[in-house]
């Protein structure tokens, strides 16, 4: 890895944003995706299945596993209840099948070159929706296309859509934060990394659907190819282009005026603590696998002296989130 772009002198620390393409607004360098290890994914899949079978005894979760083995061509799984009930907590609110859930299904269908997503919906909800003639035709079409799986009465559909997305290594469309007791049982840092690479969030603004695809880069401390360090600040962020990062770099001809936070005294003969490949990668899909291997790394900020200085922050609007095909 070349060091020509490292510059000289003290390290400069500033706040910055990362655009939808993974470029730092300050130094212009590219952030990368640290891939998820295949063996970790398989272990995670097995742990979900094990927990689900213990808690879905009456529903026979094994039936769903067998069904999924014969229907493995999906590129996206949709949490049907989450989408259908989105922002429906008003007097005349209900399950929005045609305006919301169907909009998500159709959008995913168009983006994936006419491949249907898999919608997971509880059987009780399905039977209720089928009572409406206007819904029946749509649901029957989804069934005929293999785009709908109804979970048994008494089951918790969370196990089904999570297992399907992990098993098929595909995208998961849900705004569920996945923080309740079910997900606490998984209790793994890997789960958080998996969510980062696979969860697709959505919005409906004036009946217009917006899908927020996973970022093209990993939310970990990382060193860019030309020597800048980038540190994501903690906290939930519904739009990753708005997340604040610390950009740590040495002076050179890069960036534009932003708020500079301080200087870092670099240790003599400083050596980066890791090696990483700088190829870009996308979220795993059911047909392709990423080739990168890597681990989150840490930057020894605690060993350096920080001196506060002032600077001017450039006014700018966040970049539009790229809509991946």
UniProtKB/TrEMBL annotation:
Keywords in alphabetical order: Hydrolase, Magnesium, Manganese, Metal-binding, Repeat, tRNA processing, Zinc
Start and end residues of each stretch annotated as Disordered: 304-325
Keyword tRNA processing on entry: yes
Any GO molecular function: ribonuclease P activity
Alphabetized InterPro entries for the sequence: PRORP_C
Main EC class the enzyme belongs to: hydrolase
Residue ranges annotated for the PRORP domain, each copy included: 18-247
Required co-factors: Mg(2+)
Catalytic activity as recorded in UniProt: Endonucleolytic cleavage of RNA, removing 5'-extranucleotides from tRNA precursor
Biased composition (Basic and acidic residues): 316-325
EC number of the protein: 3.1.26.5
Record flagged with keyword ATP-binding: no
A GO biological process held by the record: tRNA 5'-leader removal
Similarity field: Belongs to the PPR family. P subfamily.
Protein name: ribonuclease P
Source species of the chain: Tetracentron sinense
